Amino acid sequence: MQDSTVKSPLAQLRPVLSLLADGRMHSGESLGAALGISRAAVWKQLQKLGQYGLVLESVKGRGYCLRGGLDLLAAEKIHAALGDRSRSLLRSLILRDEVDSTNAQLLALMEAGTGHAVVMFAEHQSTGRGRRGRHWVSPFGAGILLSVGWEFSGGVQSLEGLSLSVGVALARALGRFEVPGVRLKWPNDIWCRGRKLAGVLLELKGDLTDRCGVVIGIGLNSGLRGQAACAIDQPWADLQQVCPGIPRNLLAATILDELLPLLKDYPEQGFRAYRDAWAALDQFAGQPVVLQSGTETWRGTAAGVSDKGALILEMAGELKYFHGGEISLRGQV
């Protein structure tokens, strides 16, 4: 089952964006004729695009274009590209032009008891978050922003290692497109050629000792532009720069094809089914690293992860185990 695009403040701009998405030059007159509005009204709409990170180019006497175009998401295209099992597991597919945070929206649905097996994509988030409260930069029509709601029995213990397993699912999805240099960084990041390409954020609702709801948020960089790219405060990778030409709708469907079956089977399989795959992609395996949590710092050698997804750090000949939360990991300089 799928839902059509939900109305938003960006809804009035969708028609003109659809026309400009081809990246070609369009005159104000032709845009007005296609939209059934005046050239002055077209101009007013075009002036609003900058606030969404869209760079409009204008050439006197010729018109306007979005250089490079836009590959807009379409719920029906994503749904049609899904495999049979993923389609059977999906209860609702929602696409929004603009939202505060897809995770926040899915958490509200989980609270209302209507969020299980629901997927939400957004073209833009105004307050999207990464791990440790960081803002996730998301200019309109760039990258993949999605959240999935899923209910589990068995409490939070049954979810140990889930964020790492989701990382494996993302790596496998990217592998279908032969994206080079994909690695995983404990506990929530997908790297590409030594830089962050995507992040995972898990949030919980309900009874943490029995039946609980989980919202899995994913943000993946692709087609970042101009000032939005400059706002990112850490080394980052962009899928379109590394492996250009991957259709966004097909990428979105491929991610779901890896993720939805994982969520369905996770209570029986757990992280043990993904540990070896994660270890094979470990960005820092065998390297000296630094862990930090608040004012505490640990230094040692990354020695893989446990069956429960804990990072194993070798320190002075002893193995120490660290679970997620507010711990950050980086390589020693």
UniProtKB/TrEMBL annotation:
Binding-site residues for biotin, renumbered to this chain: S101, T102, N103, Q125, R129, G130, R131, K196
CDD domains xrefs: BPL, HTH_ARSR
Sample GO molecular function, one term: biotin--[biotin carboxyl-carrier protein] ligase activity
Keywords: ATP-binding, Biotin, DNA-binding, Ligase, Nucleotide-binding, Repressor, Transcription, Transcription regulation
E.C. code: 6.3.4.15
Enzyme type, top EC level: ligase
Catalytic activity field: biotin + L-lysyl-[protein] + ATP = N(6)-biotinyl-L-lysyl-[protein] + AMP + diphosphate + H(+)
Ranges for domain BPL/LPL catalytic: 76-267
Domain of life of the native organism: Bacteria
Gene3D superfamilies: 2.30.30.100, Bira Bifunctional Protein, Domain 2 (3.30.930.10), Winged helix-like DNA-binding domain superfamily/Winged helix DNA-binding domain (1.10.10.10)
InterPro entries: aa-tRNA-synth_II/BPL/LPL, ArsR-like_HTH, Bifunct_BirA, Biotin_CoA_COase_ligase, BPL_C, BPL_LPL_catalytic, HTH_11, Transcriptional_repressor_C
DNA-binding region (UniProt annotation): 28-47
Family: Belongs to the biotin--protein ligase family.
Its biological purpose: Acts both as a biotin--[acetyl-CoA-carboxylase] ligase and a biotin-operon repressor. In the presence of ATP, BirA activates biotin to form the BirA-biotinyl-5'-adenylate (BirA-bio-5'-AMP or holoBirA) complex. HoloBirA can either transfer the biotinyl moiety to the biotin carboxyl carrier protein (BCCP) subunit of acetyl-CoA carboxylase, or bind to the biotin operator site and inhibit transcription of the operon.
Protein name: Bifunctional ligase/repressor BirA
Gene giving rise to this polypeptide: birA
